[in-house]
Amino acid sequence: MTLEQLLDAVRNFDDLVELAPVEGSDYPEISWGDHFFYYDPDARIPDNVQPYTTIVTKDYPDNEQSALNPAGRWRVNVHVGLSRSATLTGGTPGDITASDFRAADVFLPHPVFGALGWIAVVNPGPQTESTVIELLRAAHGEARRRMDRRSDLNAVGKPAPDH
């Protein structure tokens, strides 16, 4: 699976908002070329909400374990929860000690956020690509449910709009 194939699949999700900083944008240079995905029916990046999926194309300071700096290496990161993460990685929820984060086309706990239920796949391929797409779709659906719950909570106690 290429990065473009994965992006094409994700970009078809309803109410997807993609932040993809480019050179010269107002975003930090380290983020240029990476992709951050949110759910929002208003097509805005929601305030105070983390992306549910990221795709990084280079090593970040304090996150170099995946060795992404050689050309052609990239990593998709998806929030799947601790239980699902443990099932996918075959480990204890949040345990990142025995992982070879450089391995491609395998499910790994995220090297920094694994303890929070994030998984990572470097260069998804035949072993992981279909499951990665399913996980992205599920994470998108969960982001929708969270936004709907927040909207419902914000609506409680507010007067009905005048018609």
Which characteristics define this entry?
163 residues; 6-stranded antiparallel β-sheet; 6 strands
Explain how this protein is built:
The chain has 163 residues and is α+β, with helices and mostly antiparallel strands. Helices cover 26% and strands 15% of the residues. It is built from three helices and six strands; from the N terminus they run αββββαββα. A hairpin with an 8-residue loop joins strand 5 (108-109) and strand 6. The chain is globular. The N and C termini lie far apart (51 Å).
Number of strands: 6
Uncertain ranges: none
Tell me the distance between the termini: 51 Å
What best-fitting shape do the alpha-carbon axes yield? globular
Strand order of the largest sheet: 1-2-3-4-6-5
Broad structural category: alpha+beta
Main sheet summary: 6 strands, antiparallel
Share of residues in strands: 15-25%
The residue-averaged pLDDT reads 91
Helix fraction bin: 25-40%
Our count of helices gives 3
Short summary of the structure?
The protein is an alpha+beta fold and 163 residues long. The chain has three helices and six strands; from the N terminus they run H-E-E-E-E-H-E-E-H.
Task: Describe the secondary structure blueprint for this structure.
Layout (H helix, E strand, L loop, with lengths): L2 H8 L5 E4 L15 E5 L13 E4 L18 E5 L2 H8 L18 E2 L8 E5 L6 H27 L8
Antiparallel strand pairs: 1-2, 2-3, 3-4, 4-6, 5-6
